[in-house]
Write a structure and sequence with these properties.
This protein is α+β, with helices and mostly antiparallel strands. It has a single domain, classed as Ribosomal Protein L22, Chain A (Alpha-Beta Complex). It is about 40% helix and about 30% strand. It has 5 helices and 7 strands, in the order βααααββββαββ. Strands 1-7-6 form a 3-stranded antiparallel β-sheet. It has a two-stranded parallel sheet with strand order 2-3. Strands 4-5 form a two-stranded antiparallel ribbon.
Length: about 140
């Protein structure tokens, strides 16, 4: 069985948040590893990289069927992951991968998710992420 989540982000919204709130916004949304990874991107592509990671966090939350804490003033009755609970990191080959902790990891374990795949892409204006979660039902 597969679960899928996709999210599209306007790069300008991330750029505006960084310009307005600076390090406070970056530290709230991105882990230290994510911030460091985006810092090595050329300045012109930094906002695209940040937007793609934001989209990945949202897409992963959608694939898991959970929300993200801190993204609005609405109340929900299901678990919500913190923004740092879903981390976009690179593997040894440079491919983006997801590292889950907290509510995100607990939910993935409860759903018996065996693997996550993430794909990121962006233009100057938009960033998109797709997350596929694989559940092994062979033992069911």
């Amino acid at each position: 069985m597969l679960y899928h989540g996709v999210d599209l982000v306007e790069v300008r919204r991330i750029r505006q948040a960084v310009m307005r709130y600076g390090q406070r916004f970056l530290a709230r949304v991105y882990t230290a590893a994510e911030r460091a990874d985006c810092e090595i991107a050329p300045q012109v592509m930094r906002y695209e990289a940040l937007a793609a990671r934001w989209a990945a966090k949202e897409a992963c939350a959608k694939a898991l069927g959970i929300g993200l804490r801190g993204l609005g003033a609405f109340t929900v009755d299901y678990p919500r992951a913190g923004l740092h609970d879903i981390e976009v990191v690179r593997d040894a080959a440079g491919r983006p991968t997801l590292h889950l902790s907290g509510v995100a990891a607990q939910t993935a374990n409860a759903l018996q998710i065996r693997a996550l795949a993430v794909s990121l892409s962006h233009t100057d204006e938009l960033a998109i992420a797709s997350v596929v979660a694989w559940v092994d039902l062979s033992g069911v």
